[in-house]
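In the previous chapter we treated chains in isolation. Here, by contrast, the input contains three separate entities that must be folded as one system, with a combined length of 1188 residues.
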Amino acid sequence: MKREITLTINGEAYKLEVENRRTLLDVLREDLRLLGTKKMCDMGECGSCTVLLDGKAVNACLTLAVDARGKKIETIEGVARGGELHPIQKAFVDKGAVQCGFCSPGMIMTTKAFLQKNPRPTEEEAKTAIAGNLCRCTGYVRIVDAILSAADSVKE
Amino acid sequence: MKELDFVGKDVPRVDAEVKVTGEAIFSVDVTVPNMLWGRMLRSPLPHARILNIDTSRAERMPGVKAVITGQETPFVFGVSHMDQTPLQTEKVRYVGDPVAAVAAVDVDTALEALERIKVDYEPLPAVFDPEEAMQEGAPIIHEGIKNNIAANPRYNIGDVDRAFKEADHVFEDRIETQRVAHVCPEPHNCTAVWDASGKLTFYYCSQMPSVSRIQISKALGIPESKVRVITNHVGGGFGSRATSKFPMDFAAIVLARKSGRPVRIEYTRDEEFIFSTFRHKFIMTVKTGVKKDGTITGRHITNICDNGAYCDYGPVVTNVGGAMQGTLYRFMDYRYDGYTVYTNLPYGGAMRGIGNPQVHYAGETQLNMIAERLGMDPLEIRLKNAVRTGDETASGAILKSCGLAECLEKVAEKIGWKEKRANPKPNRGLGIACGVHFTGVRLSPGIDADFAGATMTVNDDGSVNLATSCVDIGSGSSTALTQIAAEVLGIEVQKINTIFGDTETCPMGWGSRASRNTAVGGMAIQKAAEDARKQILEAAGVKMEVHPDDLEIRNSTVFVKSAPGKSMSVADVVRFNRYRKDGQAIMAKSHWDAPSQLADPVTGRGNFSMAFSFGAKAIEVEVDPGTGQIHVLEVAASQDLGKAINPLGAIGQIEGAVHMGLGFAMSEEIALDDVGRMKNNYLLDYRVLTSLDMPPVSPILIETNDPIGPYGAKGLGEMATIGTPDALVAAVAEATGLFITDLPITPEKVLLALKRKKSK
Amino acid sequence: MDACKLLTKYGSKARILAGGTDLLVELKRGWHKPAALINLKTVKGLDKISFTKKEGLRIGAMVTWAQLLDSKPVAGHYPLLRMAAEHLGSMQIRNTATLAGNITQASPAANGPLPLLVYDARCVIKGTNGGRTIPAEKMFRGVRKNALRKGEVLTEIRIPVPPAGVKGTYYKFALRRAMDLAVVGLCVLVKTGGGNFHEVRIALGSVAPKPFRARNAEKLLKGKKTEDALIRKAGEAAAAQCAPITDLRASKEYRIELVKELVYKGIKESLA
């Protein structure tokens, strides 16, 4: 059963026809071709599909698209502004936190939500924030480094 | 020597920006117009004859555009042993063996179509244990393969029996390792597109696109010129994507041909666990002769590799572990008997280290046990036996650079080896281990090649187009290669565009495996860049009326060495050289074959790699005797990598390798049921360590400046994966008094072992 | 309520959708194929936490674990519930998953039941025929079986103010420090005075088909001296009440040993 909904993603309104049972992840990737949000497990066990709903990090694979109506949805595509990397993205680049890059969008979205709430985290708090984001390449060390470095430069 | 501008610097990854914005396209992001979705039908039985397959109901389903069985995929393929067809026609050999495939307008339709395919099987007796499979009377899995032994790689160097006679002690221990999965973040996927001219474009997350192309062309019987393989950014490889060796690949290709539309097949995570291969289970017996003073006189290792139903990389994996054990310590009497054994189980493949981590685990663990039995310091016994620069080892490797002793000493120093062992604390322990791995390799009999290619064009604006045969699967190879090019050319990294992955635009090479990108790929880049540099200097020399030997390039500027004020930009040189009568573009190419040799077919000896990289791990743990929980306090990981082209990148690789090693040691295991179905093929119960589980890691880079590699560089990615479980088990042994060698070493195993010890 | 009416109409063919972090995984795995999902997110007013010194805490059915972590009354008065929240899943899961969902899914390994059991929480249930309130312990009837009847919805969890001077511990012994299920889950609440146990409450998870209070162990300690040997005995008594299984995560033998050790440790830590 399809239904007409409007999703507000990165400040833009998208009118869509979706079935109730489709996840936000599938709608982002398949219907809207916003491919930056990745599907690594589709079960909420890896965090690669992390997007922000009203500023809160959630797994898009466990969010029904219809439940994202009326919420401010942010994906990785909306993080850089006017061609300028966000300080978090810059920190990931500078601190060697990106290897294969598949977990990076999810890591960055998680970090964005986290630093908005906790702008001066300890190392342990940063590690806890990304505990739901799996990485197979880095061992997390440089990612935590990047988060702490970004904390110093995030103003908002 | 000239001060380096780019090599040896922490240059940010050249692909990091597109990855942090989500712009980077991975194979799984590729879609083409009119694309169909394919899925495979897989056997529910571990060993059975196929009596009949009826696909008629599936074919009639609306939305289903093609259905195929093994009749349409009569291609035989494999890595070294051609023992597989994409879809089975005669019999199935493991639960999951594919027998049919469909392409439909969406995944749901494809899945429903699979349910409408009727397959009649006649079950056959199955065997799930390799030691049983080797016995007389065991079910034969591949016709004509006696005792299910697909391969028997052997090394027989010197006289190991004499060495045992000369020893004061001979120890024999049996040590096994478990199956673990790659867990590549990007699940396997491919998209097959045929065009009207009969050409196939195959999008695939390949580590070796040129080799994929050869395999597809060979299997399908079409010319290579009719096959184009395109690899984009790759979400992890770790060996699972080395070559095109999956039923999925051929199924997509044939479905696309039959339906007349592009077909995409991608794995879900639960399929990815079991059908993208994994690290083989090894059952090893290590027999070592030692003198009273700890000198190793000789070693004999028997290795039974539980291969699973099809060879894939199995024989190579079995071979590699054997070769490397003759390359770490100075004994010259060495025997290795490897058996790659078929079982009715899902099959393993190449995984970071291809067999080396497992055999090292057995050898190093036994050496730690021997040290304990002799009352010797595990560090001292290693230093005593360690190979050195200049050695020709038992395996025939010639070590032009070797930092093994320094690797051991540095991790020992970092972990506080001497002080802590002098003042042991209750429930705490230290463990140490070391290892060696190759940099590119010539270990496949009959294939006397280990090369990489590079092409280079300098553009009108002084920027550079660089095409490499090396795929960056996340290891940072594109960045390191760009740095090498920048250094040789005197042109900044940001001005160099490095591409890979398209067989139509990139040169041929063995791609990304065997830790070869920086060194083998780098030498190809270096040679091409030297050629391009020579052309620039010659052209500039003509324009500036100076001899090229008097010229230098730095910061994209060609200047006269003796009069630096007299200069012109590289861009101007290029334009000058191009836009004149009989002008020339600045273009260069290189095909570089590593100076290594194939092994002697009888003994197995040979200098089979251009260089060998060494490393060591020292780990400190604290064990909770009430719960068995192991707290890893620190991992010190040293790596002799010749030269760190990008130190931050190298450190990142080591940290990631330690993460993988700790998982192998403590938490990861593919659990199979009694017919070989995986029980934990999801990320909750297949435990990849989270950020909170990682202990402090101290990477130590040791530069021994190998004479062959670019700026002295050697391989890194696989060596760094070796030694972690070895050191961990030894540390736990010191903390508890017990060598618990059954991996993964979980709190349960520790506690129950302690209880058993107490009750004795 | 509309939700109850819909539930009654569809019967077992419908499932309630709260946070969905457990349910959606079940659906993706094909464990159920419900005809309808009744989405509690659309019901107003279920996402509130309120606290009064007299009545204690009231947690609506749509309250997420993240809200519990942010809540001052939870931090101030129900530290064991807060600890259960800290140890649940990941930030992403905590932002979505609900305490009520955790309870009604009735996994024996769930975090939520354990603090509710030691805090003597109660579950408020609404149905088409009115409502009822039951002790939290009674919500669990077996593995993934809860006490809700046809057409009923858990709407609120109420936790009385704990007695003054209580201390406690929450342990989730798991194989990873995040994103994992407990191999053994433990929650302990004690109150002492004059070197004796006045109040002892021990809740255990992952060691039986349901989370439960180890009342034999509690009886052993109540009124007695806080002595090491006795606390060890309590650990053994608790273990004797367990009926663990061997699964992918651990053997029953190991779980029994862990219960003995963790109950002892948990009580000792609470006394410190």
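Chain A touches chain B through 51 residues (CB under 8 Å). The mean pLDDT of chain A is 96. Compare these points with the single-chain example from earlier in the chapter.
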